[in-house]
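Input (structure):
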């Protein structure tokens, strides 16, 4: 008997696979769901589809289908977050029209935003991704790669879907908005069954260029990209796991993508992302310790020259009370006078207010100089971090090669020992054969003598 929740469907625009694929859970609506809840059990319930239902069937009474892999392997839970709801609304698709790998991208992007305390938005998402539309499932493709493709049980997802029924007002509020046009009615934020609306647009209509983003969205995008760029790079290798070298003999590196599978399956995604930053912090610490004293002295000397070039207020004399009476002369460090005929010294005539302003100006100039020095130092530090990371990868590869060579030597020794044993056995066999031949010849001679003896 066909599921009463499903309705007739205009399938002229659909591909064959969605129309022909039956759920492995199909059991005419009876049985036990073989996995845990997908959200608050008081607001939703899980149902088997009938043998007549398809993933692209139209369902009524607040029922919609979902894929098992999205919940079991990707940690997805209902209700839909505001970001997920915004994504479905923008792309004009039902939840099952999106390929599960794209769900993984959505979830990973959202978790990264949460970790960095940034709001997740579809505009920023589609500045990194574009839509790949077909007649069946729709996928998101990265235009700037940050995430690895989810590696899991995605290939067999099509026939593993079930039905979700909303059974509380709170659950309905997460999927339906109220239209007050005289009569109070509920309309879904996005299609709950397969919709043709998405395919009335071109893929480029869903994308976002940086020029279309607001200032706030551009700032969010830059912070996300800065986090990705801060991750240590990895050395590229060939098919034989050998590191690739450039023409000048340096290691060829590539960006280290965020492991989507590890991020979505970890018990604590913050620990997963924090580990990447911790690894980076270790490299920063190691790199900072290896900055040579010569470079430090050079930066200090540059800073001293910058400070020395500042005008009034560049003195580093003792700190004195600027608001009280004049301090004793022995506590005041007078600035050096410039020897110029006809130009009296101005600094020596400064009273408390003047000295206050002069030292304040000096402090500002000093801070600017420190910023310049810090920038110079950061350039050296970044280079040291990169060199240190490459050195660590080189050492790891060297250790791996050494282990392989040691294993080969061990195997070679075993083979040589077996060869020696085989040679010895061959020698023993040859000696045994010679002895046997001699014994046989002796036996034949004895038999001949015996035969002659009998004739006599």
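Output (sequence):
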């Amino acid at each position: 008997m066909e599921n009463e929740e499903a309705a007739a469907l205009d399938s002229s625009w659909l591909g064959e696979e969605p129309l022909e694929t039956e759920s492995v859970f199909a059991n005419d609506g009876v049985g036990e769901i073989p996995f845990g809840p997908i959200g608050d059990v008081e607001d939703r319930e899980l149902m088997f589809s009938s043998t007549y239902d398809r993933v692209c069937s139209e369902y009524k009474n607040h029922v919609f289908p979902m894929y098992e892999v999205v919940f079991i392997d990707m940690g997805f839970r209902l209700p839909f977050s505001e970001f997920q709801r915004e994504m479905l609304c923008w792309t004009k698709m039902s939840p099952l029209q999106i390929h599960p790998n794209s769900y993984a991208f959505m979830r990973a992007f959202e978790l990264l935003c949460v970790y960095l305390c940034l709001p997740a938005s579809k505009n920023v998402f589609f500045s990194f991704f574009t839509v790949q539309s077909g007649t069946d499932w729709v996928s998101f493709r990265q235009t700037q790669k940050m995430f690895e493709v989810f590696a899991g049980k995605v290939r067999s997802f099509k026939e593993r879907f079930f039905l979700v029924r909303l059974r509380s007002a709170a659950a309905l509020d997460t999927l339906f908005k109220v239209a007050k046009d005289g009569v109070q009615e509920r309309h879904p934020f996005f299609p709950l069954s397969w919709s043709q609306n998405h395919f009335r647009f071109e893929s480029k209509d869903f994308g976002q260029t940086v020029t279309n983003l607001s200032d706030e969205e551009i700032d969010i995008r830059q912070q996300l990209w800065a986090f990705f760029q801060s991750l240590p790079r990895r050395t590229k290798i060939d098919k034989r796991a050998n590191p690739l070298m450039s023409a000048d003999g340096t290691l060829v590196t590539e960006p280290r993508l965020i492991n989507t599978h590890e991020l979505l399956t970890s018990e604590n995604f913050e620990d997963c992302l924090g580990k990447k930053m911790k690894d980076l912090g270790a490299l920063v610490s190691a790199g900072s310790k290896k900055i040579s004293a010569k470079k430090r002295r050079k930066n200090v000397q540059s800073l001293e020259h910058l400070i020395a070039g500042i005008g009034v207020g560049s003195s580093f004399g003792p700190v004195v009370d600027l608001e009280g009476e004049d301090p004793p002369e022995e506590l005041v460090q007078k600035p050096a006078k410039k020897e110029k005929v006809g130009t009296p010294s101005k600094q020596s005539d400064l009273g408390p207010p003047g000295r206050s302003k002069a030292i304040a100006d000096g402090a500002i100039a000093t801070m600017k100089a420190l910023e310049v020095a810090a920038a110079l130092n950061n350039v050296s530090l970044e280079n040291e971090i990169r060199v240190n990371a490459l050195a660590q990868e080189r050492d790891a590869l060297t250790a791996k090669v050494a282990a392989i060579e040691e294993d080969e030597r061990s195997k070679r020794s075993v083979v040589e020992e077996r060869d020696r044993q085989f040679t010895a056995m061959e020698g023993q066999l040859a000696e045994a054969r010679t002895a046997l031949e001699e014994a046989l010849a002796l036996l034949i001679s004895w038999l001949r003598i015996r035969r002659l003896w009998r004739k006599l």
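Notes: Residues 434 and 440 are 10 Å apart (CA to CA). The chain has eleven helices and eleven strands.
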